[in-house]
Structure prediction request, 320 residues.
Amino acid sequence: MNEFELVKEYFRPLTMGREEAGGLLDDAAVFSVPEDMDLVVSSDTLNSGTHFLDGELPQNVAHKALRVNLSDMAAMGATPVAYQMNLAFAKQPDEAWVKAFSEALMEDNERYNVFCSGGDTTVSEGSLLISITIFGYVPKGHAVKRNGAEDGDLLVLTGPIGRAAVGVKSLLGIIELDDPSPFLAVCHKPEPRVALSPAIAKHAKAAVDISDGFIADVSHLCEASGCAVDIELKDIPFTEETAALIENGVVRLEKLLTGGDDYEVAMAVAPNDLDAITAEAKACGITLSVAGRFKTGEGLRVLGDDGEELEFESSGWTHF
Prediction:
């Protein structure tokens, strides 16, 4: 198939028939932003060999490419609406690959109520590259940024830490697991917390998507807010499977706290708002955890059971 046939067959259906996309017949999409809303925009780029393995299943690539962007919407308290997608194939695209890729995107379109409003396809001399720019709406003036945490606020997490880091180690053959499936699942299909976006916009004073590593991203939040945070190791949420790997020495605690790819949200929440956001999260099937408290000062400390500060060689993922 040539480029235009491929777009018509596999990518035009992803517009979900929305007028804004214009059937992918024009050079750009046209949006009208509701008067009581702000437009929130974010981009993520994934490339083969760095963000997913060469030869990864196309459906896994599709789910991750879209969902990491959805996670950014959740961290801002925004409800996602649409996305632009750019694909640079390493060679003439295989139709079966594109079909499986587009079907996975359609699954997520329907699940998260979003649509593809446009983009571009090309062929490069490098590896497969996918860049998605996502758009969402948040009530005017209520976008949640990283700079709002204050002394006394609670550090609240939307889910457990470290599963994706274990999954990556399994994929790379660094560790062997009897049952890697629960860890691989979150690598291939992260669960963006967009169902909680309205509650985050209402109750969170600051928030960050912790995809680059729990320690690194919470540190970024502290730096932006001009405050410090003390985190209690015993309060950091791990699944039973992950905790067992730590206890048995299969993985190091540091690698779980700095490994990244969790796609949970870390928030600063005032103590008086904790019950409200916890109840709203429960209604969405999300269990929140309080892992620490913000205070005046600088930096991040993780305190062990003995009250001593843990030391880390690295805080998280960087591309260069």
Q: What stands out?
A: The chain is about 35% helix and 25% strand. The CA atoms of residues 76 and 144 lie 5 Å apart. The longest helix spans residues 58-75.
